[in-house]
Amino acid sequence: MAGLSPSQLEELLQGPALNPPLGVIPNFDNSYTLLPVANAVKIVTTILATLAIFIRIYTKFRIIREIHLEDYIAVAAWGGYIVFIVTTGFDPKVFGRHQWNIRLVDFQIFLYGTYISSISFGLAILSIKISILLQYIRIFTAGTRDLMFWSCHALMWMTVIFYVILLFMTIFLCTPVPKFWNVLETGHCLNMNYVFLATGTANTISDFLIILLPQPIIWRLQMSFKEHVGVSAIFSTGLLACIASMVRLIISSKLLKNNDVTWLTSIMCIPSYVELGAGIITSCLPTLPRFFKTMAQISWISKMYKCFSSCFRSSKSSNSSSKKISERSGRSSWVRNRRRLSMVRVERGVAGSLDGLEGWGDEGEGEDPDAVFPTTRLGDVTTSRGVRNEGDNLKLKNFDEERGVPQVSVIRQGSEATEGSN
């Protein structure tokens, strides 16, 4: 670089940070970016993690009034998480874009952000794991030196040693250190992709071990099966962090064969947000029951809760009543339609032969086997004056044009009065 003239150096810095694939033209202004997706994940995880850490602080300071070392470490983890989300994606010109769509001068900004975010990520994830393991020791061992006690200590100190080594490797990856982000600096660097791969592997293994550690103790407690499942679920919420860590590990492995660093590193940031956010929430979960129990005892919060509960029950009752009315209306409609279908059967019989219809009606009670739905034979025709009697004559009246159905008259013996039956 030292032999380049100022104009050549400027041309180099304004060119693409990576040679594009064949047939691809670098687009420095309007290329596709992952920034909107990353920002959405970042906002959700930040809100939830911040809410969880503030509930933990409030519960420990104002309700329990007892502070432990793991509480301070959890706050430090949240601080590392905030630094990580700020230093990733702060420059929309570089984050989430393919490297050939980024100028070399802007790529240096990306590298500097990667340097800071890698250190902050390591500190944050280490603090989260220590905070959770210290809580395990305080909750499950209660001053005893059993297998759980030694297992937690062994995992905690192994995690500390491993991450301290990784942090030193990250900080002093290049000689001199500015060589990490300054492409014009002379010197040499180790392969950062191997550090990403080692970090992802350690995260995945330790996350699963942290989830599995308390399970034997939880299932030995004298509780119902439902309570066992509930307590186990609380301590298993870190499973989301495990899944995110596995996704991060898969992406980091692709960096060994792909030179598109800005694109893959930006993708890797998305599960990293989830992993850190889920880890912070998991470390704060043991304080949540005490917090909500205390909040329920505060008068105005209790009244607000009762108000919402009453509105919910009222809405549910209204929906249930509407459903019952709808069902009742449906049954009434079904009965009317059935009567109408029965009268259609009557019409067909009368149209063939009035005598045949009368003979069919004299067969007595039963069901018409040819009906679409089970229908009652004409022998059971009921009018407002009663059931048809033996010897009554039947007469087909004109169609009721308004209602669109035929009318059958029942003529009583010795009487000319007629009666319509629908």
TrEMBL record:
Residues 387-399 have a biased composition (Basic and acidic residues). It comes from the Eukaryota. Keywords: Membrane, Transmembrane, Transmembrane helix. GO terms for cellular component: membrane. InterPro entries: Rhodopsin_dom_fungi (IPR049326), SAT4-like (IPR052337). The keyword Ligase does not apply. The keyword Membrane applies. Residues 360-370 have a biased composition (Acidic residues). It is a multi-pass membrane protein. Residues 357-399 are annotated as: Disordered. The chain crosses the membrane at residues 40-59, 71-90, 110-134, 154-173, 193-217, 229-251, 263-285. It is found in: Membrane. Residues 55-292 form the Rhodopsin domain. Belongs to the SAT4 family. PANTHER family: INTEGRAL MEMBRANE PROTEIN-RELATED, PTH11-LIKE INTEGRAL MEMBRANE PROTEIN (AFU_ORTHOLOGUE AFUA_5G11245). This is Rhodopsin domain-containing protein. It comes from Sclerotinia sclerotiorum (strain ATCC 18683 / 1980 / Ss-1) (White mold).
